[in-house]
Amino acid sequence: MTDFTIAAHPREENGRRPSRRLRRTGMVPAVLYGDGKAARSLSIEARLLRKLLPDERAYTHIITLRFPHGNETALIRDIQMHPYKEEVLHLDFLRVHAGERVRLHVPIHLLNEGTCAGIKAGGVLHRALVEVEVEAPVDRLPEAIEVDIAALCIGESLHLSQISAPAGVTLVPLLHEDDKEIVSIHNPRTGAEAEEETPEATA
């Protein structure tokens, strides 16, 4: 799905019981807030969300909510899922406009795992971060932060300060001098090594 426009319907009733009734009709309750405007209750067809949400890009791209009397542009801010079903219970949308700088968590994609020097040498990959908070103009939010690990060797790691973010994108943890580790390659412990480190039992 490449068109991030979705039909939205005004919702008059709020609360648990009206929300349950709404879900039984195939609709999902949601709220739209931000940009200095009053919060707006709405609902979206569950079948449309099942098409939209599997696309990872939907979480970092502007979504146009098409109401019967005008459109709103927003980002998905939060999704409440059913505890054990693949079912969306509620969504939060944040109003945005072109040029506005926003903060959002985006996934970290590791590149060249298959040719990583440390993995080819028998090392074990450890992922310390799977996503990172970024700040960027809303129309330049990256779909993901890509990290090339081809040259990473056993005993080495990569931190946020060692990667290049896309132009105009700031890695928020670095603003707070929090240079998080992204990934590292560990030397696997063999059974023989483990036995050598175990003190011998005394008689």
Automatic annotation (TrEMBL):
Question: Gene3D superfamilies per the record?
Answer: Ribosomal protein L25, beta domain (2.170.120.20), Ribosomal Protein L25, Chain P (2.40.240.10)
Query: Which biological process terms from the Gene Ontology are attached to this UniProt entry?
Result: translation
Renumbered to this chain, region (Disordered) spans 1-21
- Domain Large ribosomal subunit protein bL25 L25, by residue range, is 6-93
The organism sits in which domain of life?
Bacteria
Q: Which GO terms describe its molecular function?
A: 5S rRNA binding; structural constituent of ribosome
Listed A to Z, the keywords are: Ribonucleoprotein, Ribosomal protein, RNA-binding, rRNA-binding
GO CC annotation: cytosolic large ribosomal subunit
Pfam families per record: Ribosomal_L25p, Ribosomal_TL5_C
Q: Where is the Large ribosomal subunit protein bL25 beta domain?
A: 102-189
Q: Summarize subunit and interaction data from the UniProt record for this chain.
A: Part of the 50S ribosomal subunit; part of the 5S rRNA/L5/L18/L25 subcomplex. Contacts the 5S rRNA. Binds to the 5S rRNA independently of L5 and L18.
Q: What does this protein do?
A: This is one of the proteins that binds to the 5S RNA in the ribosome where it forms part of the central protuberance.
- Which family does the record assign? Belongs to the bacterial ribosomal protein bL25 family. CTC subfamily.
The entry's protein name is: Large ribosomal subunit protein bL25
Which species is this record about?
Acidithiobacillus ferrianus
